[in-house]
Amino acid sequence: MGSDALLCVDGVSMAYRARRGEIQALSSLSFAVARGEFVSVIGPSGCGKSTLLKIVAGLVRPSAGEAVLDGRPVTGPRADVGVVFQKPTLLPWKSVLENVLLPARALKLDMAAARKRAAALLDLVDLGKFANNYPGELSGGMQQRVGLARMLVHDPAFLLMDEPFAALDAMTRESLTLELQGIWLGSGKTVLFITHSIPEAVFLSDRVIMMSGRPGRVLKDVAIDLPRPRTLRTMGSAVFGDLCNTLRRDFMQNANHGNDTLPSRKSVGG
Ligand SMILES: Nc1ncnc2c1ncn2[C@@H]1O[C@H](COP(=O)(O)OP(=O)(O)OP(=O)(O)O)[C@@H](O)[C@H]1O
Ligand SMILES: [Mg+2]
């Protein structure tokens, strides 16, 4: 990876101060993502995935270590990054179109061009007819799709996605997964994608990083050498099934390790 890395997460630890003492969310997490790569992160609930994403997005400062993006340490939100959060986080008093335009406004881009791009992106996520509606008039899944359009409106080189499809029905989820592969293929964009779904991670990714239970560390880093573009047929193939099964088995074995709410069990291996 070395010099080709767009993102380096280097020894990142995060302890939150909570009412009843500290919560150690991440522990010396290190990995790199190469320019143009699609990398997924999977891990049990509460292992620090969203914390990791917020640190890379520059919204949370780690207790130790740093994230370096394109050669510069991340110290705050950046123009070259697009983020979609686990919750849609739309402004309820602004229309769908205005919500999509938020990053363009914050970055003071040419608004005529941004409006065109926002309209095209709303079409892409099947919400062209809802541009002038308000978030409160949309379903959860529709709001999440507005978030996807907003992530792309300023054409960022680096996409950070936190379980973007979790609230969607299975059909929409499948079609947006294919859509995302299409957007990514040939765009040169780099993606860090967080998901609970092992098949989704395997389908989309060049690499899948598996995190331990809290405090989150890297347990496994698995290359997914399936040809592109991947199709629905890929999902039915034996090699796809084998990759999912192996990851699922590792996931089950490791899901509880490091989770301090359960009786402590020594983790196997390193
Ligand atoms: N602002 C905060 N203050 C205190 N503790 C927090 C805060 N945000 C997260 N935590 C704690 O840090 C740990 C990791 O949380 P995080 O949201 O990063 O997990 P996650 O892996 O994204 O979980 P999920 O898969 O359920 O989304 C949890 O134990 C959580 O309670
Ligand atoms: Mg999360």
What do these coordinates show?
The chain has a domain at 95-148. Helices cover 33% and strands 24% of the residues. It has eight helices and ten strands. The chain has a six-stranded mixed β-sheet, with helices on both faces. β9 (207-211) and β10 form a beta hairpin. The model is unreliable at 258-270 (pLDDT under 50). Bound molecules: adenosine-5'-triphosphate and magnesium ion (MG). The site of magnesium ion has 4 residues, from α1.
* Distinct small molecules: adenosine-5'-triphosphate, magnesium ion
Helicity level: 25-40%
Q: Give the assembly state of these chains.
A: single chain
* Topology pattern, helix = H, strand = E: EEEHEEEHHHEHEHEEHH
Brief sketch in words of this structure:
The chain is built from eight helices and ten strands.
Topology:
Layout: E1 5-18, E2 21-34, E3 38-42, H1 49-56, E4 64-69, E5 72-73, E6 81-84, H2 96-106, H3 111-124, H4 140-152, E7 158-162, H5 170-184, E8 190-194, H6 198-204, E9 207-211, E10 218-223, H7 232-235, H8 238-254
Parallel strand pairs: 3-8, 3-9, 6-7, 7-8
Antiparallel strand pairs: 1-2, 1-4, 4-5, 9-10
The protein binds adenosine-5'-triphosphate and magnesium ion.
Describe the structure using short key phrases.
270 residues; alpha/beta; 6-stranded mixed beta sheet; 24% strand; binds adenosine-5'-triphosphate
